[in-house]
Amino acid sequence: MQNIPSVKLGIVAVSRDCFPMSLSESRRKAVVEAYRASGEEIFECLTTVENEKDMMKAAKEVAEAGCNALVVYLGNFGPETSETLLARAFDGPVMYAAAAEEATSGMCDDRGDAYCGMLNLSYNLKLRGIRAYIPEYPVGTPSEVAAMMKDFLPIARGILGLKNLKIISFGPRPQDFLACNAPIYQLHKLGIEIEENSELDLFASFHEHEGDERIPAIVAEMAAELGAGNKLPGILPKLAQYEITLLDWAEAHKGSREYVVFANKCWPSFQTQFKFVPCYVNSRLAARGIPVACEVDIYGALSEYLGTCITEDAVTLLDINNSVPADMYETQIKGKYDYTLKDTFMAFHCGNTAIGKLSACEMRNQKIMARTLPEEFTYGTVEGDIVPGKITFFRLQSTSDAQLRAYVAEGEILPVATHSFGSIGVFAIPEMGRFYRHVLIEKNYPHHGAVAFGHVGAALFEVFKYLGVADIGFNQPKGMMYPTENPFVK
Length: 490
Known about the structure:
Elements: E1 9-14, H1 21-37, E2 43-44, H2 52-64, E3 69-74, H3 80-89, E4 94-99, H4 114-128, E5 139-140, H5 142-163, E6 165-171, H6 185-189, E7 193-198, H7 199-208, H8 215-226, H9 236-253, E8 259-264, H10 269-274, H11 279-287, E9 292-294, H12 298-311, E10 316-322, H13 326-333, E11 344-349, E12 362-365, E13 379-385, E14 389-398, E15 404-414, E16 423-428, H14 432-441, E17 448-452, H15 457-466, E18 471-474
Parallel strand pairs: 1-2, 1-3, 3-4, 4-5, 6-7, 6-8, 8-9, 13-16, 15-18
Antiparallel strand pairs: 10-11, 10-17, 11-16, 12-13, 14-15, 14-17, 15-16
Helix pairs in contact: 1-5, 2-3, 3-4, 5-12, 5-15, 7-9, 8-9, 9-11
């Protein structure tokens, strides 16, 4: 997967001056051994932090080692000031974890009290306004702490990715798509850069790539990827020209940032001027870790990219689109899967989902657009049912008054034929009906949701917390009411 960070993790042990430093050092070594035994590599900082001078020395050592994520390990109670300042001095995401006591025999001379130290640590982080990741239960044995560190890796990738991201848009958004328009203030607050361009800029650059010598090779690559689904081979040269246009723009415009995603206008004038639809190209770039959100959905592109960093896999952006027909539910779902009709829905988009995430595919025209345009102007979308399996539906969004919100819900795509068009699947999320009403509708989320292929809700939830998102919605189970849920409705 391209366009996402590679995490190089470091670990620093800390020690309170009235506790034996050797206790923290021996416990750190045990954690490192357990982590490496799990197949991961880590930089072990040999400076144990007891005071602020130690902190500066350790921060320099992990930086010189190339670490971009850090575990601060309380082998004993820990020095609350210097261990907290270490997170401020380190330029990257930081996790804190603490040592559990090993045995009854050590409860006098080798008791570390790190369980207590985590409380003072958390107070000091809040006091100084420093963000850090603390696992759900942050105290453990070496193998348990090693497992926490592995869970930290996708969280760190997500934070590092956003920190070094530029979102490039070509707009403006289509008329009657206010839902895809949100203030960009929060992007800058998160440290994300945005470059907003005109659709005319994209059109001009596209024409500058006419006859590009790279086009035939891309066409051959596309034809091989589509295989028997290559039903419109004549459109491939234009699609290849467009793909090269976007990739060249990304490289020329990334500036100080390492990673780039797009949020592009794709209708209505796109078809009449470019004379194709961009869906297949968008799907190909998503497969490479460069999401291209439709309809200038800037926060959709941001959400897709975050999911890509966490999963190291392609993510797609879909409309939360339509209800499942009752006859489909009765014959294909009821009695086979533990879902009510209201737990199910269909998610769809024109054809932006990576081919590797489709059960089968064909290059087609965009059916909705072809209702009002010449059919040949709407070639370029890839249609197919999305592969069944576990999914996480999520989105990070700014409200109209520039407040960050997010939601995350785990579920699955059912192995049920959709009998429809586009990139589409039959989705099931427990208690979706209530989640739809009291999170998606109540909190004014747009119709676009990002879909990660796997259950990664825990990592997404932690990233949202790390970013300071106070309002994180999720599909609450039965018996856990939403604030706006009517208790008298049966």
